[in-house]
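Final report, results section. Input specification for complex C-07:
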Amino acid sequence: MDQEFSKNLRQWYRKNGRKLPWRSTKEAYKIWLSEIILQQTRVNQGLPYYEKFLENFPFIEQLASASEDQILRLWQGLGYYSRARNLHAAAKQVLRDFNGEFPPDFEKLRSIKGIGDYTASAIASFAFDLPHPVVDGNVYRFLSRFFGMDIPIDSSQGKKAFNELALELMDAQHAAEHNQAMMEIGSLVCKPISPNCDECPFSMACHAYLYNKVSDYPVKGKKQPSKKRYFHYFLVTDGISTYIKRRNEKDIWQGLFELPLVELFELSDFPPALPEMAKIHQPTVSKQPIKRKHILSHQELHACFWKVNIVKCLPPKDGFLRVKLSDLSTFGFPQLIVNYFEQEGL
DNA sequence: AAACCGGGGGA
DNA sequence: TCCCCAGGTTT
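Structure output:
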């Protein structure tokens, strides 16, 4: 334990830290909710979702008794939808196994769906003041630069090394404030690009700063190239209803809904075979599709949206749902399709 | 250990 | 364009 380091850090934090809603509570439920939402998500992007979820589910009982579809609908647009499915499972798990209260115990927290090392440490420290160090992207970067860590942060050995380092630096008497401060200085000062070393209280002892190698840290492993995929979506409608289907495969957007889809292996400017339900009543296919490129972190999606007008939407089959156009907003869709609906005025 | 899983914003 | 974000689960 390095009390001097932590003392300086926390002093900086008390003066410069942001006031955020989840920092002004000790309720484990609210802290947990914020941590799940903020996984791989910027504060400004997650903030409205945090408010929205708390309005709909002030207590964990209400979240647990909600439908997964309702949760996915509220999560729409935030990405990494397994977080939403795990959120629901975790709420039920806490009710069943822990009587509705998050346990003040790292290993028990760690056993809850969607809670890994970081989130378990965050809840343990923020809600219960237990001395577990949080190591998120901000902390990796700050420690990596300050100590000149040459081990990749995304390797198993790297994670272990940074965890041990963060534990040594922690003042166990001030776990919550120390952890908030570690992340905050990484976020506000020790930024990925052009960090504010001039105003950093630790620059005079920072390895990367002293050797003018700030941009060399943190060291990371290789990144995988993104794959291209080609989607043709069909809005089959009689002006009143259309067809949608839930994605259940082990693939992107699991649990969300989408339009009838034909996926091709290469770019094509004309529609492939129409979906089954569009082949009746002399379908009128739009001459030109609406094209959209949608970038995920690991995939590049090229989508064509074809509008198919038919006389009447017959009852669905093959797992499709027939829904009113005016009810589309009650289902959770990927952002790619939400954007298309908006362009169509739906 | 490596692959997979979204969407947005800043430089 | 590329990088990164209050990471976790699956293979």
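Chain A has a mean pLDDT of 95. The longest helix of chain A spans residues 82-98. This concludes the modelling results for the funded period.
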